Every structure is written in structure tokens, then in C-alpha cells.
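Priority: medium. Attachment 1 of 2:
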């Protein structure tokens, strides 16, 4: 019995040590770069001058940078807190507005996020995670015609969601894949003689590489 108890204790200690080691692989400071494919769509409703409701959008390939710090939150749980910043603008599309001969050209820029990322350790090299992120960006819209040029910039923000998988290639380097979306809150702004309501939405997929210190 004594031998059996000793063997059982050794198994428990070994399993606990292995789990701790797996968790430690994903804690601490890390930085990375993500190659992204982002679809930006905008729902716009004109509420004065003319009545017009339409959607417009486009897709953009680009890169964002990230920095995060991971905390051990249990035997197989890690919580990362961090942020990202996009190095490129997102094309938001063009809409031809025939009643006033305008082409409305949209662009989203200065996009950054602050996030919390609970993760579950699947193995010593693999972490699956969910993401809750605060998103902020500036939407720039221009109305151009043969004799007129108008432009406006407005900031949008809201909470978005995502999920992904991170795989350690070595003690310090990793790959990660992620998908997510955010629906921004609706805002109004004036452009020329008209007042508009607009609501952006971003859907993205990314593949990234990173380094854990």
C-alpha cells in the first residue's frame, strides 16, 4: 500500500509539474506582427436633403503590430492583456451618388485595440484563446465631383470579439491564427448640405508571428 501511495503521489506531482511547465510557455511579455485580411463595410443612411440608404465596403490586406503580457490563471489557463495597432488604412469603399453627382470615398485609419485574451492550454506548445477587445478607429469620407470636394473625419469605437490558436515553434517564437469582428456604434456627421448616419463593421482574419521574452 505504501508503495502504491508513493507511486500515485509521484504521478500527481509529475502531472502538476507538466501542466505548470505548459502554462509557463505562454506567460510573460511577447511581441508580434500579424498579416491581416480585413473586410470593412459601412451602412450609411442619409437623413437630410435626400433620402438614400445603402451599404458600401471593401477588403484590405495589411499588417498590425501587437504587444501583450500573459498571466498564469490556473493549472491550464493563461490570460493575456495587450494591444494592437494597424500600420495600414482600410479601404471602406466607393459609392456613386447620382442625385448630386458625388462619389463618396471611404477610408478607415489609425485603428488600434486594447484587449483581454483568456486562453486554455491544450499542450506544451498549443494555446486556444478567446478575445474581448476595445476597438478605436478614424473614418475618413470624401465626396468628390467635377466641381466639389468635401471631406469629414469621425472617430468610431466599440467592443469586438475574436478567437484564435497560438503554437510555440520554440521556447521563444510562435505562430498564431485569429478571426474576429467588431460592429461600431452608429454616429452622425455633416457632409456638405446633408447629414449622415453611419455604422462601420470590421471582419478580419490574421496569421501572425511573434517572440516571447
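Attachment 2 of 2:
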Amino acid at each position: 500500500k505504501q508503495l502504491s501511495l508513493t507511486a500515485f503521489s509521484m504521478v500527481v506531482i509529475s502531472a502538476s509539474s507538466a501542466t505548470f511547465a505548459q502554462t509557463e510557455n505562454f506567460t510573460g511579455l511577447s511581441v508580434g506582427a500579424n498579416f491581416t485580411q480585413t473586410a470593412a463595410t459601412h451602412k450609411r443612411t442619409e437623413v437630410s436633403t435626400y433620402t438614400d440608404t445603402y451599404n458600401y465596403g471593401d477588403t484590405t490586406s495589411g499588417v498590425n503590430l501587437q504587444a501583450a503580457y500573459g498571466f498564469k490563471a490556473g493549472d491550464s489557463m493563461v490570460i493575456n492583456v495587450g494591444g494592437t495597432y494597424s500600420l495600414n488604412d482600410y479601404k471602406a469603399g466607393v459609392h456613386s451618388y447620382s442625385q448630386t453627382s458625388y462619389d463618396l470615398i471611404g477610408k478607415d485609419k489609425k485603428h488600434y485595440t486594447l484587449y483581454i485574451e483568456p486562453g486554455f492550454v491544450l499542450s506544451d506548445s498549443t494555446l486556444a484563446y478567446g478575445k474581448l477587445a476595445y476597438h478605436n478607429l478614424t473614418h475618413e469620407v470624401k465626396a468628390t465631383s467635377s466641381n466639389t470636394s468635401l471631406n469629414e473625419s469621425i472617430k468610431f469605437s466599440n467592443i469586438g470579439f475574436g478567437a484564435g490558436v497560438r503554437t510555440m515553434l520554440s521556447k521563444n517564437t510562435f505562430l498564431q491564427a485569429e478571426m474576429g469582428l467588431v460592429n461600431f456604434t452608429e454616429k452622425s456627421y455633416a457632409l456638405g448640405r446633408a447629414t449622415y448616419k453611419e455604422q462601420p463593421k470590421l471582419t478580419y482574419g490574421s496569421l501572425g508571428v511573434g517572440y516571447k521574452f
